[in-house]
Amino acid sequence: DAGVTQSPTHLIKTRGQQVTLRCSPISGHKSVSWYQQVLGQGPQFIFQYYEKEERGRGNFPDRFSARQFPNYSSELNVNALLLGDSALYLCASLPWGANVLTFGAGSRLTVL
Amino acid sequence: GQQVMQIPQYQHVQEGEDFTTYCNSSTTLSNIQWYKQRPGGHPVFLIQLVKSGEVKKQKRLTFQFGEAKKNSSLHITATQTTDVGTYFCAVENTGFQKLVFGTGTRLLVSP
Lengths: 112, 111
Description:
The structure holds two protein chains of two kinds. Chain A contains no helices and eleven strands. By secondary structure, chain A is mainly beta. Chain A starts with a strand and ends with a strand. Chain B is mainly β. In chain B, strands 2, 4, 5, 9, 10 and 11 form a six-stranded mixed β-sheet that branches. Chain B has a five-stranded antiparallel β-sheet with strand order 1-3-8-7-6, with no helix packed on it. In chain B, strand 6 and strand 7 form a beta hairpin. Chain B starts with a strand and ends with a strand. The interface of A and B includes residues 41, 59 and 106 of A.
């Protein structure tokens, strides 16, 4: 069985640009969460989606948005990129009712 | 918001030495999880502790939840080079399935 898959694995953007990151959860998992991990720090919660609805949002500006599709895959969008948005963006999937995260390999974003 | 502190931030040991990382919260926790992140990798779930004073073992790893459910520790006996990585504790905050990760302890093991 495939695990959590994320794309792209690496990308470089310039300030002011927009980026879209994609995530496919483990088959059967209906909940997807997004985390940002800045170098040298622990992951920080951004969003949680379940059954295409936002169930939670962390302390991130409105430049960050996300959505979940009928097949439970998800996209994270970040507008007007800042240098400080450079980080590893992690997607995690889990079945509803569980609280253990299975992370994908992440998308490493560099903003120049 | 809730903060979870880990100490030490970094530890460098010789292979065969023991290692311990501590996780401390200012509030009582319902449960605590531990994750390991290898260099260049992503966090991987190790274990979850739920009960006060709970102790769980995984081979050379021993996990403990404090009696007051405000702290936890991870102890590795006789470290190996494969133990290299950053160890994070994580706790639930403001709702089910939303985790707050600790500051992490980076472990380096020299052969």
